[in-house]
Amino acid sequence: MTTCVPRMGAWRLHVAVVFSAVVVVACQQEGGRSGDPQHGFSDPPPYSHPMDEPGKTAYAHLQDYMAVVRDPQRFDECLTSDPGRQPHLCLSGARTGSRSGEAVHAWMLGQLQQIEGVQYVQQQSFDWPRFAPAHYALSVEDGQGGVFAPATYPWHFQGVTGAQGVRGRLVNLVDGSLLQRALAGSLDGKIAILGSLRHIHASEENAEQKLAALQRAGAVGAVYALPGPDNDIIAQNYDAALGMQALPTLIVGRQDREQLMAMEGQQATLIVDGSVQASRSYNTYAFIPGRDNSRMIVIGTPMNAWFQAASERGPGVGALIYLARYFAEQARRFGPPPVTLAFVATGAHETMGFGLERALRCLDAQRVTAYVHLGTGLASRGYHEDNGVAVDTGEPSMRRWIVVSENRYLKNLAIDAFERLMSNQGIGTVRAGIFNGSESQAPYAMHIPVVGMTGGGWFHHSPRDDETRLSVEYLDDAVLGFRNTIEALLEADTGALALGNLTADVIAALQKLPGYACPTPIDLP
Fold it and tell me: Which of 88, 227, 93, 220 is nearest to 152 (CA)?
């Protein structure tokens, strides 16, 4: 058994036990943090970002996160020696199980450890499968001696072909509906082209069922597209717990799909070479103990994403660090908060590993009075199309909402807290839980009042989701709204908050979660 002493500031010392099998407890010692050989990280430098306006400070931490995501030394899924010519084979991203995916968790651990007054900083791993691509490609003969080879990306866990791939003639199934399958005739030995008319990023409804039906009908492969910006590839979330499916599927941009549709009947070769590997993901915890440690407010954000995810994932990551720094400073100046604040960075988001469900099981849901979700799209810019090209509107994205449980007490609190965001950016509220497909479903189903943000921008799940897709000005309103929300929750009447959640509790009984347990006990204030 190994013990270590976390950095305590003015609060009491606590001895943390390192669970070598699953939990990694990281300690702040004299002279800085010891390196984390598990992730290949050396000691992080001290903070170079002063506490500024909420948006500016969060954005500075966002940029550090993006530097980790884009670091080629931490990226192990580049499948070409010529990324300039084949960029789609070298798309960086903090994907679960990849080296970049592990690196962002190690980075977050180091960031939280540097905050004076934040205690019980620890990281916990849990087993989770990884789809590791080896090669992917699509080539279509045009009948005149030429070949069309569009940019592609594998739909993880949908199926593999081996290195040689599969060959078959293209058949256009439009949206893959039962009617379209019937009109197409025999699918034996064919490669299906299909897609959606909806602009969606998280997961295409019924897509897995459609693909499974194609495989049962004899198709040997599929090409799928969603109407993302320009000709961008839009990756799709998938529940990795379901395992590998049977129909190898590649994702293409919608303009390339149109060209493929025009080549219906031509011979094509589809390659999805890869394997499912045993891997892991992580949850990272940090606490500011309160005067009443029997109650807890949890603030959380996911860490993993398909690609760069600067506007999708980055704002929530940056906001989590800013908020931990802000409330630690408040505690140093004015004493402990009324109740404990827990900051949680969760793993396996894009493959539906539900790190948040595991984390809440570890935190004891009975102690959690509210969950604050730093979700997607906190500062996304708005776009419209002009002749198939995405054009910045100069306004915020209107595809974002404040998510609140059916709880009038909490809704009124949130509306007051986010007043500036809602008035400046035209953002409204939506219901949480089963009415919203975000990760907030987990706390909602566990009868925890939920407030957060959901929605997104046009470039979410796109390789081009870089910093140009968000605005620091928009981010300032959002992070201030979250800060106001937490401050209001700290002073809230917990009895009224719980009583106001009765309707949500009834609806939550209709919702089922995967049932993931806490991987192993963690240290709590």
Answer: 88
- Residue by residue, DSSP assigns 177-195 as -HHHHHHH---TT-EEEEE
**189 vs 202: CA distance, rounded Å:** 30
- Nearest in space to 79 (alpha carbons), one of 68, 92, 67, 70: 92
Which amino acid is residue 89, in one-letter code? L
- In this prediction, the residues of the chain whose per-residue pLDDT falls under 70 are 1-48, 197-205, 433-438
CA atoms of 143 and 265, how far apart (whole Å): 10
CA distance 79 to 140: 21
Q: Is residue 461 within 8 Å of 307, Cβ to Cβ?
A: yes
Task: Count Cα neighbours of 23 within 13 Å in the Cβ-side half-sphere.
Answer: 24
Q: Which of 296, 285, 288, 287 is nearest to 339 (CA)?
A: 296
- What pLDDT does residue 37 have? 34
User: Do residues 24 and 18 lie in contact, with contact meaning Cβ atoms separated by under 8 Å?
Assistant: yes
Q: Quick one: which of 79, 306, 270 has its CA closest to 160?
A: 270
Q: pLDDT digit string (tens) for 79-101? A: 999 999 999 999 999 999 999 99
**Cα–Cα distance, 174 to 31 (Å, whole number):** 61
Q: How far apart are CA 442 and CA 512, in angstroms?
A: 9
- Strand 2-4 and strand 16-18: pairing? antiparallel
In the beta sheet, which residues pair with residue 452?
373, 403
Q: Give 299-321 pLDDT, tens digit per residue.
A: 999 999 999 999 999 999 999 99
**Radius of gyration (C-alpha) of the chain in whole angstroms:** 23
Please tell me the distance from the alpha carbon of residue 74 to that of residue 8, in angstroms, as a whole number.
32
DSSP β-bridge partners for residue 169: 267
Give the residues across from 148 on adjacent strands.
140
pLDDT at res. 353:
87
Contacts of 206 (CB under 8 A, 6+ apart): none
Under DSSP, is residue 488 helix (H, G, I), strand (E, B) or coil? helix
Quick one: CA torsion of 396, 449, 314, 123, rounded to 10 degrees? Answer: 180
Cα(252)–Cα(17) distance, integer angstroms: 48
Contact 505, 433 (CB under 8 A): no
Q: From 456, 463, 430, select the one nearest 377 (Cα to Cα).
A: 456
